[in-house]
Amino acid sequence: MPRASLHTLGCRLSQSETAMLADTLTRQGYRLVEFGKETDLLVLNTCSVTENAEKDCRYAVRKTLRHSPNAFVAVTGCYAQTGAAQLQSVPGIDLIVGTQYKMNLPEYLPAPDQLRKQPEPELRHSRTIDREDFVLPGTAYSDSTRALLKIQDGCDFMCSFCLIPFARGRERSRVAEDVLREARELAGHGYKELVLTGVNIGRYSHHGMELVDLIREIEAIPEVIRIRISSIEPTTVPPELLRHMAASTKLCRYLHIPLQSGDDHILQAMNRRYTVRDYEDLIDQAFRLMPDLGLGTDLMVGFPGEDEQAFANTRHTVDRLPFSYCHVFSYSSRPGTAATRLEHKIPAAVIRQRSKTLAELSRSKALAFYQRHIGRTESVLFEQGDRDGFRTGTTGNFTRVAVPAETVAAGSIHPVTITGVMDGLAYGHLAAPSAIHSRRPLL
Ligand code: SF4
């Protein structure tokens, strides 16, 4: 049986696509092996968001060919779309597949017994990418207790720093029946949490069905226990979605809403579609309905023109808002994006210092969020593996909770009373279901 190893260098959406490709390859007779182990085929799903995409890709190819010199290497993903020309000069690559053809990659492979290194890579690539709603060829099984369910792709927003609209193309939604087909299969397979993923999932729209309608349909599947929304743009969260989240028995009270900057001039230069006030109003509405909401965000530091005042505005905005964590990114110029033409670039040392400041602020906000849970009893979905004798899992609002590993099994959901917080983790002990604080236990 030929072996296939798959590796993702990108985001959650790419991970769900890799899992889907793995499913197709398994059905074609491949045996999956862990990345880093000997293999006959390597599929690399790349990212183009950071400057290191090419370096990461070269490294992964070299690492694989060291232990498997004859492995056939196929590269796909965002960097295969935006950096196909550069990838053609990376030694050891046999096939490059752009975004348009990504999910058909298994069709372009030679028959498993014909896998051979090629003198030069074959290129399957088109500059333009379909706008049609789509179906996917399989089911994205993962080795986690939660499964990623792709519902959307592409983005029309054209933020001035972002390469994703070029790498993934215009907005399109997955056909609702196909989403429901996969949701049923994943839930039937035992996944306790489905995470809805896409590039701009708030823009989901298929034959009049919007995101909240799709969520209702998924909730109607009896085997589905928990649903979580991944990152969602602030301008795409309608009040109806917040009301539904507040009332639902299955949708986690959790939102990750990128803020990027707390300064209106910078937001405008980023071509973001909201002001700081708009963002604060949205968060205010959400917390009025769900005081226990878990709220994450992305912050970008060092965008061209971010002067001391603009950064101070971001710091104060972050300080004011009830975030439970912030992902802090440094701006890096991506060739082809509008922001590369902007003046007033910020020196790397200043960017480092600002990142550090926001990361510290994020840590103190996370601590305050966690401490608010002490004494509460919440239902926790436990994950694989243990950390120094503790098994960890997450609540609906994405608080990470640890209990002694021997007291719970991976993949189970239990009520836990939280007794303390240390090193970014809440600790607790198992409790009776009747003790759960949330109005809806998400069990
Ligand atoms: S919303 Fe902006 S940052 Fe997000 S994918 Fe679209 S263009 Fe990129």
Tell me about this structure:
- Strand 20 (413-422) and strand 21 form a beta hairpin.
- With 443 residues, this protein is an alpha/beta fold.
- It contains twelve helices and 21 strands.
- The strands form six sheets. Strands 2-1-3-4-5-6 form a six-stranded parallel sheet, sandwiched between helices.
- The chain folds into four domains: 3-124, Response regulator (Rossmann fold); 129-252, Transcription Regulator spoIIAA (2-Layer Sandwich), CATH 3.30.750.210; 256-372, 2-Layer Sandwich (Transcription Regulator spoIIAA), CATH 3.30.750; 377-435, Nucleic acid-binding proteins (OB fold (Dihydrolipoamide Acetyltransferase, E2P), Beta Barrel), CATH 2.40.50.140.
- The structure holds iron/sulfur cluster (SF4).
- Iron/sulfur cluster binds at residues 155, 157-159, 162, 164-165, 199-200, 233.
Tally the helices: what do you get? 12
The whole-number mean of residue pLDDT values reads 93
Oligomer type: single chain
- The helix fraction, in percent, is 25-40%
InterPro entries: Elp3/MiaA/NifB-like_rSAM, Methylthiotransferase, Methylthiotransferase_CS, Methylthiotransferase_N, Methylthiotransferase_N_sf, MiaB-like_bact, rSAM, rSAM_horseshoe
EC number: 2.8.4.3
Function: Catalyzes the methylthiolation of N6-(dimethylallyl)adenosine (i(6)A), leading to the formation of 2-methylthio-N6-(dimethylallyl)adenosine (ms(2)i(6)A) at position 37 in tRNAs that read codons beginning with uridine.
Organism: Nitrospira defluvii
